[in-house]
TrEMBL record:
SUPFAM superfamilies: Integrin alpha N-terminal domain (SSF69318)
Pfam families: FG-GAP_3 (PF13517)
Name this polypeptide is given: VCBS repeat-containing protein
Organism: Rotaria socialis
Protein's UniProt keywords contain Cell membrane: no
Keyword list, A-Z: Signal
Length: 253
């Protein structure tokens, strides 16, 4: 997975890469002419398996940081802190604006969670970035609230349905109430689940939208596709080899 942003404040876009089967985050810093320098690799931990990446300023220093999700367990540091129980891990790399990552913090997600996707936004209206993680193995979304100094607290989890298997999430203000909600694509249950945010880090009861027989949803994306100022949802449907779109009318998708 890749994301694109200006990591070193030179007004040129850079590329961040997290690759399955590798235990490093790759950063390719861009030049004005469109070329990039050779990849700079930042190690997470030996044996990690990176599957998702997102960017945000997690310690309110106006410099972009990186969050990556490790699909596998086996984080030795986490195991030492929690006895013999294996954990899923989330790794946050803090930057200082010149493209050099300087600090690594690891947060443990429950055993068997198989974290698969990550999104960043302010879920409790304190102007500080928080993190949402889709967990394919435990069939839920976990919220981590930020303190603004690079540290997070792991809060509630929200079910996406029994055996749903969510591989992808996206966030948006669905109700135009300035509160962020979460859209979840489910691989196994053939539906999109919406969690409408209340602006206090909690969410309403999930709404499920079935995408049809044969659907196997791999990715969800959000935008206003028909220019009516309401947020719509698009999903990549691996099962039918199609892209599906659900248009929102007023408060309903």
């Amino acid at each position: 997975m890749i994301v694109i942003s200006d990591l070193n404040d030179d007004n040129v876009l850079d590329i961040v890469v997290a690759s399955i089967g590798f235990d490093v985050v790759g950063v390719l810093f861009g030049y004005v002419d469109g070329s990039v320098i050779e990849q700079t690799a930042y190690s997470t931990r030996t044996g990690s398996d990176l599957i998702a990446v997102a960017i945000g300023d997690f310690n309110t220093d106006n410099k972009l940081d990186i969050v990556v999700v490790d699909f596998l367990d086996g984080n030795i540091v986490v195991l030492l802190q929690n006895g013999s129980r294996p954990f899923q891990s989330m790794c946050i790399l803090l930057g200082h604006g010149d493209g050099i990552v300087m600090k690594q913090i690891i947060y443990a997600i429950d055993n068997g969670s198989k974290s698969y996707s990550v999104a960043v936004g302010d879920f409790n209206s304190d102007t500080i970035l928080d993190i949402a993680v889709a967990n394919f193995g435990s069939n839920d979304v976990r919220i981590l609230l930020g303190y603004g100094n690079g540290n997070f607290s792991i809060r509630a989890s929200y079910s996406t349905g029994d055996l749903s298997g969510p591989p992808s999430i996206a966030i948006a203000d669905f109700h135009r109430d300035y509160f962020l909600g979460i859209a979840v694509a489910n691989w196994n249950s053939k539906d999109v689940v919406l969690l409408y945010g209340k602006g206090d880090s909690t969410f309403e009861k999930p709404y499920s939208y079935w995408m049809g027989y044969g659907s196997v949803l791999s990715t969800v994306a959000i935008d206003d596709f028909n220019r009516d100022y309401w947020t719509d949802i698009s999903v990549a449907n691996y099962g039918t080899s199609h892209a599906g779109i659900r248009l929102q009318t007023c408060d309903n998708i």
